[in-house]
Design a protein that fits this description.
5-stranded antiparallel beta sheet, 366 residues, 8-stranded antiparallel beta sheet, alpha+beta, 8 helices, 22 strands
Length: 366
């Protein structure tokens, strides 16, 4: 193999497909990138047996061929070359030379025959999404994906695809994030996509003028655009029936400014520690926008007085029929609520409380 290509294009392509490369594996070839030069292009592929990423760049191919090179080593070498063009030569024994200007690297590649072949998903085209819409739907919900492998289905996001609507759902037992968009889909299907696949996909599809094509079946999903193709295995299992979790009605609906509300939560969370995991209590009425149970203790501490009697004990702030919502921590800090509010671009946004169960739902104001 012998070819010449632009250094910046190659560096960006290596960085992109490296997201699907295994960092440490008992199979060395999985730590590499398959490079295949033919025609007028160089195709790069990374594959960790769960997710695969491919992309092609323009190249002047003098001798067609293929080789597998260490992803980390290749990326570091290409970034440090001293010219705008890169010449890569690989022999039949996989001895590879990477040359640019006065800089030249000689490394041993790996046998391309040992690189696992990407699966043939056989997935039919399902729907198209504009890149900004795809990123918005994933970014708005990804924070709520579960990190607990005991329930594998909840470590991904549910894509509920209907002929005229796409619903993306994520939950982890504490949080539930839902976003819906009108679409034109070719079929009706529910799939669970791993969070890692979606997190990497939104980093790759950055051109707002591109369209993301989605093809899916019961085993695989394929995201493709003009620049990248991402193929991933789906998560098997039953996703929670989220429609039964959220009642249709609500007792109270409050409209808040997202930025001010988020900043208030962050300030109050500074005094919640691993030892003192008291929940944040948020009270809404026509006069009070925010109230912190620790306020009196902070004032006392600043003035070197003892905290008031009954500090830390729940106490009524409003009559029982007023709007009171208690947000408990999903960890040491309730910053997941800040993450949820960060997904809301519209100002103000609505915050709803469903009955005595204190189930909260963030939705964009129309």
């Amino acid at each position: 193999m012998k070819m010449i290509c632009d250094r910046t294009l190659l560096s960006n392509a290596v960085a992109g497909v490296s997201k699907a490369v295994t960092q440490r594996s008992s199979i060395p070839v999985l730590e590499g990138i398959l490079m295949k030069a033919e025609g007028f292009s160089l195709t790069l592929t990374g594959y960790d047996l769960e997710m695969g990423i491919t992309t092609s760049i323009e190249a002047n191919v003098l001798e067609p061929g293929e080789v597998v090179l260490s992803a980390k080593l290749l990326g570091d070498m290409v970034r440090r070359l001293s010219s705008s063009e890169v010449e890569i030569t690989a022999t039949e024994t996989n001895a590879t030379t990477i040359k640019g200007g006065i800089t030249e690297f000689d490394i041993m590649g790996m046998n391309p025959g040992d690189f696992p072949e990407l699966p043939s998903p056989g997935a039919d085209h399902t729907l198209d999404l504009e890149t900004p819409t795809f990123r918005e739907m994933v970014e708005t919900t990804l924070f709520a994906v579960s990190q607990d492998d005991k329930k594998p289905a909840h470590t991904g996001e549910l894509f509920a695809i209907e002929p005229d609507k796409l619903t993306v759902v994520a939950l982890d037992g504490y949080r539930l994030a839902i976003i819906e968009k009108p679409v034109k889909a070719a079929k009706d299907i529910n799939i669970i996509i791993p969070a890692k696949t979606l997190a990497e996909a939104i980093k790759l599809f950055t051109d707002d003028d591109e369209v993301v094509h989605i093809a899916a079946n019961r085993r695989f999903v394929v995201f493709s655009s003009r620049t990248y193709t991402v193929i991933s295995r789906l998560i098997e299992g039953d996703f929670l029936d989220y429609k039964r979790v959220i009642p249709e009605g609500y007792h109270t609906r409050v409209t808040v400014d997202v930025r001010d509300f988020s900043n208030s939560i962050e300030r109050a969370s500074l005094i919640i520690t691993e030892r003192l995991k008291n929940p944040l209590r948020i009270t809404f009425d026509e006069n009070v926008a925010y109230r912190d149970l620790f306020e009196e203790a902070l004032i006392a501490r600043a003035s070197h007085r003892r905290p008031p009697v009954g500090f830390g004990m729940p106490r009524p702030l409003l009559p029982a029929d007023e709007a009171i919502m208690e947000v408990k921590c999903a960890g040491p800090f309730p910053l997941w609520l800040v993450d949820a509010l960060g997904g809301c671009e519209a100002y103000p946004s609505s915050f709803s409380k469903y009955g005595a169960a204190y189930q909260a739902s963030m939705r964009k104001a129309s």
